[in-house]
Structure of Carboxypeptidase:
Amino acid sequence: MLSVPWQTMAIAVALLQLYFLTEAESSPTEVDRIIRLPGQPQVGFQQYSGYVTVDDKKQRALFYYFAEAEVDPASKPLVLWLNGGPGCSSLGVGAFSENGPFRPSGEVLVRNQYSWNREANMLYLESPIGVGFSYATDTSSYGAVNDKITARDNLVFLQKWFERFPLYRNRSLFITGESYAGHYVPQLAELMLQFNKEKLFNLKGIAMGNPVLEFATDLNSRAEFFWSHGLISDSTYKLFTSVCNYSRYVNEYYRGNVSPICSRVMSQVSRETSKFVDKYDVTLDVCISSVFSQSKYLSPQQVAETIDVCVEDETVNYLNRRDVQIALHARLVGVRRWAVCSNILDYELLDLEIPTISIVGKLVEAGIPVLVYSGDQDSVIPLIGSRKLVHGLADELGLKTSVPYRVWFEGQQVGGWTQVYGNILSFATIRGASHEAPFSQPERSLVLFKSFLQGRPLPEVF
């Protein structure tokens, strides 16, 4: 038997180790791994970010950020989060301002102790194409984008993301989001059920915060909210509900044909509600941050009011740093700066009028648990409309009340109110929360999120 010199053996072992190390480093998952974000505190969980191409021909790529669960990620579900707009960033709003693990503070990041990755593996998607770092090399892709295109792209994204992260392929999956995600979330879930012959998606539920579900009901509940909170007078309330309601005004606005009567009514409403009141949180007495402009299309007359001229927007500053973009494996294509809401996307805004509450009904009938929750200080998509829509859907589906309308608790304080139908369709409010509930009431939002994932009733006592 020939003996091999130990030096030769050592070299062979080293080369073999180098080979496997190179293979690991070049794997899609490892390429997307974030070593460390600039200014980030030490954490024990892994983070990933990068691009998934959803259309090779036109080079259309969606950007994602993925934060694994803080503890034992292998046992935790996967949660996809989508922000609304349409055209606003899940990275800048959801991940870095609401329920992600960090928030920018000056030059550094600080931990969010109520991050949702305490309970789940959180996947944030900048969708549709043209939002945030997501891009297309063919700029025609930014025109005439609609709900169908967005849902299809999001489906392709998930299919390809699972190829990159096969360990999550059979994991319990929940889809969540807020605002215009009342369109994104159920439409994506519906497609997943239609194209799930190979059991690629283990969909366990959807949750939507202050969502657009039915154009007229959601928008017209604004008048009652304004009036009940003392923002408009009795006489203006009467005008706002009989002469020209809000859905009629928005309908006319996006068709470029605002009638004189609607113009007069809206001017009266605007004078009384005041530009110094944040419509996304009527109790807030500070400047409105541009981070929270994701519902600007739902409030066309107040577009300018959603931009913060008083306070430095730390999230925008942070994500426009070159070292941060390098750490995130992100790049700017066709734009000079990352923006909270897209300036290049031409979305089909009339899709706003397509009701998605009927799709929610189909999901419930298919056995998919649904949670609709409302920050109760939001006048843009008020709880009044959402509660009415959920109750109406329960009646339509013949679902009996399984949890009567009651308070729920976070700690020793009332966290909000809830009602459940048939143990599958739930409505809840988050007390004191704005349109962006996880930002304004993070602890209460986390309690709600945890109960939703576990399929347990919200705390009834403290």
About this structure: Confidence is low (pLDDT under 50) at residues 1-6, 12-26, 302-312.
